[in-house]
Amino acid sequence: MIADRTGYIIWVSDLKAARSLDKYGTVHYMSRKMHYVVFYVDTDRAEDTARNVARLPFVKKIERSYRNELKTEYTKNVPDKSRFYSL
Fold first, then answer.
1. Number of neighbours of residue 10 by Cβ within 10 angstroms
2. Rounded CA gap, 54 and 39, in Å?
3. Which of 22, 82, 18 is nearest to 56 (CA)?
4. Dihedral sign, CA of 65, 69, 75, 78?
5. What Rg do the C-alpha atoms of the chain give, in angstroms?
6. Each residue of 2-61: pLDDT tens digit?
7. pTM for the complete prediction?
8. Closest Cα to residue 7, out of 54, 55, 69, 59?
9. DSSP 3-state assignment of 22?
10. Other C-beta atoms lying within 10 Å of the C-beta of residue 42
11. Which domain of life is it from (predicted)?
């Protein structure tokens, strides 16, 4: 069974120290150019983990990802006009 996950974007000042975030959750991506880390953690312990990570000295800012709340199933309400443009 797959657990529900919450994503966080963590802005850091030191990428070498940001490698230690692995013990708090799953590090998905680290941007070397923009100095941020995409980080996933179980939803049931997300708030506690975010508070603990925010206390680390190399963390500048934490933003929660709203990807879970976005609608990902799309409907097509517009009729297909490609038949009007055929040869």
1. 24
2. 13
3. 18
4. negative
5. 19
6. 678 999 999 999 999 999 999 999 999 999 999 999 999 999 999 999 999 999 999 999
7. 0.77
8. 69
9. helix
10. 13
11. Bacteria
DSSP 43-78: GGGHHHHHHHHHTSTTEEEEEE--GGGS-------S
The rounded distance, in Å, linking the Cα atoms of 6 and 61 is 16
Q: Which domain holds residue 48?
A: 5-68
Amino acid, single-letter form, for residue 67: R
| Residue located via tokens 């230690």 | 20
Evaluate whether residue 39 is within a structural domain.
yes
CATH of the domain at 35: 3.30.70.80
Which run of H or of E encompasses 53?
A: helix 46-54
CB atoms within 10 A of CB 53: 19
Measured CA to CA, the distance from residue 56 to residue 17 in angstroms comes to: 10
Structure tokens at 74: 């799309």
